[in-house]
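Re: beginner question about structure tokens

> Can someone show what the tokenized structure looks like for a real chain? I only ever see the sequence side.

Sure, here's an example I had lying around. Input first:
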Amino acid sequence: MRVGWVHFAVAAGSIVALSNGSGRAPVEAAAARSYEEVKGWPKPPASVQFGECAGVAVDANGHVFIFHRPGRGFDPAATEKLAEPAVLEFDADSGALINSWGANTFLVPHGITIDGSNNVFLTDVGLQQVFKFSHEGKLLLALGEPRVGAWDGTHFNQPTDIAIRPDGTFYVSDGYVNSRVAIFDRHGTERREWGRKGAGAGEFSNPHGLTFIPGSTDVLVADRENSRLQLFDKDGAFKRQWVGAKDAVTTGRVFAIAADAAGHYYVAIRRADYDTQHTGIVKLDRDWNIVGTVGFGQPGDPVFNAVHDLALGKDGAIYVAETRTKRVVKRRPVK
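And the corresponding structure tokens:
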């Protein structure tokens, strides 16, 4: 059965990926483990209408949080806060809405990350701020000066994403204008930063997503407009980059990155808006080889045209947030 993700062959107790070398999904094999789309997920009530889905994250309970822009597109110049709740919490299995909050709070929602204590970190490219909320929506920390873009230890300029370490230290990719990554202690004091606008090692053109390498202190940055991933140590020293295969359908702007416990990386690619043939998710192994794809015009796959963020569920499901289509697509493992 082929449902659009990688098919693995099991041999001698190990998992072996069979690649056809095209940059698309590997060829089919026996004893396959695949993914299928969960149609009709989520199931918001009729009173809730999705706006552009900018961010998606999974909490410690396995619940799925969606950070969306009800009634608004990407408009950093917006001045009127969104009247509807921008944070939606869904049950991973049923897709039912569990909770919602954030009405009259945000201008242009962007990134969402949830720490091990279920605190919710958010970025807003219109407010020029980074926030920490409790799981139920109580404001715990706000960084940046509202609606003032700048570059220093207390300002951002269209920040995009957050990654949080177990000790509470967190990283902010900042972002559309500043093109840097800043590190903060658990109290929100900036400790260090690196990067500038450019295409060289350690430079960025819109650092748009962040994740940590499992089992290490290294951090991966989705360097969006440079169409690459960059790997750094915990202090920002450059180590290596990934740019994909030249001219492959899976090569393009890198919007988001996530890692699972086994050391696989899931990369959200969008070469151009509405370019369905070059938009989807790429799965990399520990050595950064492509071992699977979904989308990119493959028959039977979801048709993506505006991938913006992704998250991994407790059960191995993959959630893909899209802006233009105002949706989150769920794909679950099929044994």
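Each token stands for a local structural state, so reading them left to right follows the chain. The domain at 8-334 is CATH 2.120.10.30 (Neuraminidase).
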